[in-house]
């Protein structure tokens, strides 16, 4: 079986020493580091994983442990990991990019294999990890409870228990491209007081279109909310709007055009060039708050 090696701080040579080809198991000491590495990587790759605790039910078959772990690991992808534990009849599995439903299908295959070819009986408990705010201790608690529930039901059971944790807080970049100090202040205060679950705003103000275009502030993969005045010194809002919508990653920009004229023509013109909303000045703060909340809900 080919096992993947993650980009942890440990040298790859050390990782290879801590992997047992005969059993298909990584050393138990590596498990906490692998989980912490995966949790730390979640905000970047935004993908879930599942941890499962697997037990050999009939201890009389314990001498067959090396063959058992090897047989379990043979069903894993090369991005999944199986770890030894301090108890020789238990293993910990780290299933990358996998939710509970996919894990259930995997264990159905494993159980079917053992039921048809071995006297060994297995049972398992698992938990799906979705948020990077989850702690290692939370995961161990959840898998322990899940395994206990499975043990109570007997061999070839699989129980899942959710981790008790808070959702991640997502950061949305915000650019206020506006030369009016009053409008800048109103928009900043609105965003700072806006209550959106699990969301925080990273706000930057630009007095003109040229300074925004020349900055590297918007050169990232983050979702980006832009309040864009249509009349600006040096480069007007429509020019900036065209530039943003011509970029390869244009879909990450949510653009609210703040217009100086309340006309149907300007509304249509702005939206044809890529604005998500056109709001004429002076604008209603309550209306703008509602629009922003609706946009953010749509993006979740």
UniProtKB/TrEMBL annotation:
<dbReference type="InterPro" id="IPR011006">
    <property type="entry name" value="CheY-like_superfamily"/>
</dbReference>
<dbReference type="GO" id="GO:0000160">
    <property type="term" value="P:phosphorelay signal transduction system"/>
</dbReference>
<feature type="domain" description="Response regulatory">
    <location>
        <begin position="173"/>
        <end position="296"/>
    </location>
</feature>
<dbReference type="Pfam" id="PF00072">
    <property type="entry name" value="Response_reg"/>
</dbReference>
<keyword id="KW-0597">Phosphoprotein</keyword>
<dbReference type="InterPro" id="IPR001789">
    <property type="entry name" value="Sig_transdc_resp-reg_receiver"/>
</dbReference>
<dbReference type="InterPro" id="IPR050595">
    <property type="entry name" value="Bact_response_regulator"/>
</dbReference>
<protein>
    <submittedName>
        <fullName>Response regulator receiver domain-containing protein</fullName>
    </submittedName>
</protein>
